[in-house]
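User: C-alpha cells for this one?
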Amino acid sequence: MTQAQRLLLLAATAACILLLLPAASAPRCRDCRRSTKEEVVCAEALDTSLPVPRTAKVPTQLQANASFSNAVPHTRVDNYAWLRDDYRNITAVLSHLQEENAYAEAVMAPSRPLQQWLKDEMLGRIPREEASVPQRQGRHWYYSTHAKGMQYRRHCRRPLADPAVPPSEHDSMDLELPEEVLLDEDQLAANRSYFDMVGPVISPDEQLMAYGVDTAGGEIYTLFVRNLTSQEQLVDASSGRGYSAEFSQCAGDMVFLEDSRTLLFTTQTADTHRPDKVWRVDTIAGPATSGSGKRVRRAALVYHEPDERFHLALWRSRSDGTIFLRGGSATTHYLLYMPSNSATDGANFTMLAPPVHEQQFLVRDWHSVGGSGDASSEEEGGSGSSYLYAVVFTGEHRNGQLVVTQLAPGALAGSTAGPAGAAGSVPAPAPAPAGSESSGDPGNSSSSSSSASSSGSWTVLQPHSREVEIVDLTVSSGFLALLERRNGTLVATAYPLPSDGSPLSELPKGQQFSFEAPSYALWLGDQGPFASLLLRVRYSSLTQPLSTYDINMETGNRVLKQQQEVQGFDQSKYLARLLWAGSTGGAQVPISLAYRADLARLDGTDALLLEAYGAYGSSFDPEFSGARLSLLDRGFVYAVAHVRGGGELGRYWYQDGKLLAKNHTFDDVIAAAEFLIQAKYTSGRRLALWGRSAGGLTAGASVNRRPDLFRSAILDVPFVDVVTTMSDPSLPLTVIEWEEWGNPLTDEAAYQNMLSYSPLDNVAPQPYPHLLLTAGLNDPRVSFWEPAKFAAKVRALKATPDSLVLLRTNMAAGHFAQSGLEDRLAETAFKYAFLVQTVAPCAGLPPSTQPEPGCQGCFAVFVTAATTAALVTLAVVLRPASRLGRSWRRLGGGSRRPGMGGHSSEGEDDEGEDGYDTRLYTSHMSDAELADDAAAEAQRQRRARQQQLQEEGLSLVQYEEARPAVRSQLQPIPAPAPGAAGPGAALALPPPLRRLVLGSTAAAGGATSLELAQFRGSAGGTLLPVPESPALSSSSLMSA
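Assistant:
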C-alpha cells in the first residue's frame, strides 16, 4: 500500500469516527428515543415519588345467599366498605376524597402548562358565535346560540315570514325579523357551581314555556313555567315555599296538553331516583289553601308505578294528537296513551300494550290531516282516522318487526303477529300494572286506567331479520321513515303513505339515504311539523363534524342545513378506517379508527387511545369530537372497539355480551388491543384504554386480565363494584339492571359469573398500568365509593410501585361531571394531559420545544448509510480493479476511458457525467498498473461475451476476418435516369450512401441475414433493397 493510500484510509477512518461521536453522545429522550438538544428527556415527567394517600383497611364480611352451593365463595371481605356514604356527610369519607384530589393535583402539577394549552386549543376551535339548526314549530323558528365567554346556551326564536307556506328543504330563517330571547342559561346558572337544565318545552299556542333545573348534579329537577308574553313566572318551586314536594322532584319529562295550560310531568323516588309518577298541574290557576291556612301549589297525581323494575317515560307525539306513557325495564315495556285534548281532571291513560317479558316497542301515531287530530276521534265516531306504526321487539324477534294497527285500546296487546302482510290476532290484554291511580287521589292504589279491550289486529309491514335492526322510526302526514342498522351500517329509508288516509297494507318501495364514510353515526333529528315532506337527519364520523341535513322524502333532494364549525380544522389531514379483530367464539369485532395522516407513523411507535363501552345495547357509534383533535394533532391514533354488549351490530350482538355472556365484552377489548399492536398501529408502551360508566367496568375488567397490554387507563365514573352494588336493592338502578347483569341475591350462576369479572373483586398482586379514576360526589348512577374503593385496592396490591393510581372526585357534580363549557373542557384537558404524560410525554411539548419529528430507527439508518458510503469509497479508490470498483465505474461512478470498458463521446466533458470523476483517484496509480488493469478487464469482458454467444448458438469473429466478405457485397449504385431529378436537378447532391441492415426473411428460414439498402440525402431519395447474400450471416459480424 502506497503512502497516499495509507493517508487516504486514515482520513476516511477519522471521518467515520467524527461522524459517530456527536450522534452517539447526543442526549436521548427515555420515552421517544429521539435526540434532544439539552435534556435527557423531552418533557417533564409526572412525579411518582409523592407520598400516596393512605386508605385505612376496615374488613367487612359480605355474605352470599346461604342456599348457594359450595362451588362459589360464600364470604367476601371488603376492606374499604367504610367509604360508602349515602348522605355525603361523613367527615372521614369527605376528608379522604379531598386528600385524594390534592394528591392527584400534586402529581399532575408538572402538566399544568399542558392542561392550559390543551384547554386553549379546544376553546380556540369553537367559533366566537354559533347557533343550532333552526327548527320550525308553529309560527316560529326555534334555536339556541352560544357566544364566546358563555358557559351555557341562550334559547331564542324568530317568527316565520309566512306560516302558511309549507316546509321546504330550502327554507331559511329570516334574520331581519326580530329575535326573542326565551331563556338565558348563564343567567340561571349565575353563582352556582353546577347547573343543568331539561327543556324548554313550548305549549301548543306558543305562549308558555316549561323547563327544569338541577343545581347539584343528582339529576333531580325543579319545575319552572313562564309566560312568554308577560314574562311572568307561573311556576317557580326553586325556594320550596308555597309548593308541594313533587315540583322539586321532577325526573325531566314534561308535556303540555292541547289546552296549552295543563302540564303533565314525571317525578322520581327520593332514594332510588326512579321515575315512578305522572302529575297534572294547571299552570295558570293559583295555589290552593291547605288545611293549615297556607296557600300551597299542588299537582294532581295521574299515574303511579310501584314496581321497582319499571321506569316511566312521557312524551307527546309528533302529530300532537296523543300523549304516550311507557313503563320500561331493561327488557320489557308496557304502553299507555291519552288523547292530547284530555284536559279534564278525570282523564287518565288507556292501556295500549300490557307488559310481556322481553317485549319492547317504538311507537309513532298517524292522524288524518284535516280530521279531528286526536286519538279519541275514532273512538267517539269522529271523521278523523288514527293509526299506530310500531316496531315490536320480542325474544324471538330481537331486531324488531314493523307493524301497523288502528290506534285503540289494546291495539298492541299481542306478543306475536303473522308474516308480512298478514293480520295477527290480538289476544285479550293482561291486567294493567298495579298502582295506577285516579287523578287527585294518591291514596288509591287500585287500577283506574281505562280498561283495555282488543280492537282488532295488526299487519306486519317488515318482518324480522337477524341482519337488519330497526333503530328508530318517524311518521309524518305523507311518509314513514325508518332508521336501520344493516350489518353495522346505519341507513335511513323513507316510504310514502297512502294519499287516501288508509294505513299501509304492505311496505312500498322506499328511498334509501346513507353516507360513504367507512363507519359513522346517524340519527333522526327533530322532525318539525307533522304535515311536512322533510326528514331531518344528523350525521357525523370520526373525521366529519356533525352535519344536519333536510331530505325531501318525495324528491330525494338532500340539503345540508348546517355543519359544525371547527376553527382551524382541515379534514383532508385526517384518515378514518374500519378494521375487524377476531375474538372468542369466532366473533369479528369492528374497530373504528382515525389518525392524522402526516403525523401517524403506523410502525408500532404511535400512541393510541382505545375506547370501549359494551353494555345495555347502547351503540358507541363513531362521531366527531373537536376536543379529540388535540390528541390526533399530537400524533395519537384514536380507536373505538365496538364490543359485544353494545348494539353496533344489532340486538343479537348485544345479547352476546350480557348476563352470563358478559365475559365476551372483555374478550373483545383484549382482542382489539392485541390486533392493534400486531397491526403496528401501536405497542404496549403506547396504548391507553378509556371507559366511562359501564364502559369503566369494561376497562377495569380488561386491565385486570391483561395489564401488560396497556400503558395507562382512564376509568371514568366506573361501575367497578358489580357484585356488591347488584346485591343492594336500595341503590338506584339496581333492581332495573338485574335484567342486564343478573341477580346475585337469588341466582347462583349470576353470582358466580359476576365474581369472574367484577373489577373490584379481581384486583390481583400484579403489575398495573397508570390509572386515573374519576367520580362525582352526587352521582346517582355510579356511587362515588366504587372508584374510591378500586383505587385503594389497586394501590395496596399492585406490583409496580412506580405506576400511578389517581382518584379525582368532583365534589359539586354527578355522573356527567361539569356542566359549563369551559369547566367541561378543563376537565377534559386534565384527562388528556394524563394520557399524554403517561403514554407519549414528548407530545405534550409546545411546538417550539418539541424535538424534530423522526422515527426511532433513523439514527441507526443514518450511521449505517454513512459507514457504507465510506467503505465503498475506500474500495473504489484502493482497489479499482476489484469487482466493486468495476461495478461502480459501469454505473457511472468514474470517468470512462478507452481501454477500460467505456469511451468518451467526442467533445463531451467527462466531468459532466453523473457520479464521481475517478480521474482524481487514478492519478495515484502507475502507468504499468493502468496497462495491466486495462488488459485484464478487456480479456474478462471478451470471455464473458464469448460464453454468452455460445449459449445462444453464435460465434465471435474478429472484424478483420469479416470485413472482406462484407465489402464484396457492396455494389455501386447506378446514377438516376436523365430528367428524373425534376426541379432539384440543378442542386449538387451528396454521393450515394450505403447502409448495412440486419433483417430476417422467410427465404433464409427465419435466420438473421444481411440486407443492403441505399438512400440519398435529397428529399426525393428512394430506399432500394439490395439482394441478400445467404453466405453472409449476422453471426460473422457480431464482433463489429
